[in-house]
């Protein structure tokens, strides 16, 4: 199944843990599957309820938010 990049999600105010290891079954959020990988989730807080573009390619330079690098990858792949 093709991954949706980025994920557009409406998030409620609160604290979230974005997966950095790529093993989660609950993308883009950590489900604890990182144990033993040496990686830890990236914690972030949401203040305003609205839609956010969350990185799902794990290459963003502004985690957990999409910085557009996936669009460059798509353009390069054609
Ligand atoms: S499951 Fe990937 S960081 Fe927790």
UniProtKB/TrEMBL annotation:
Domain of life: Bacteria
Molecular-function annotations in GO: 2 iron, 2 sulfur cluster binding; metal ion binding
Gene Ontology, cellular component aspect: cytoplasm
Ranges where the Iron-binding zinc finger CDGSH type domain occurs: 4-40, 41-76
One Pfam family this sequence matches: zf-CDGSH
InterPro entries linked: CISD, FeS-contain_CDGSH-typ, MitoNEET_CISD
Gene3D superfamilies reported for this sequence: CDGSH iron-sulfur domain, mitoNEET-type
Keywords, sorted A to Z: 2Fe-2S, Iron, Iron-sulfur, Metal-binding
Protein name per its UniProtKB record: Cytochrome C551
Species the sequence originates in: Candidatus Brocadia carolinensis
Organism classification: Bacteria, Pseudomonadati, Planctomycetota, Candidatus Brocadiia, Candidatus Brocadiales
């Amino acid at each position: 199944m093709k991954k949706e990049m980025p994920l557009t999600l409406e998030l409620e105010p609160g604290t979230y843990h974005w997966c950095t290891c790529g093993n989660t079954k609950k993308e883009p959020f950590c489900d604890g599957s990182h144990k033993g990988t040496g990686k830890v989730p990236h914690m972030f807080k949401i203040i305003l309820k609205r839609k956010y573009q969350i990185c799902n390619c794990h290459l963003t330079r502004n985690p957990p938010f999409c910085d557009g690098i996936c669009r460059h990858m798509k353009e390069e792949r054609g």
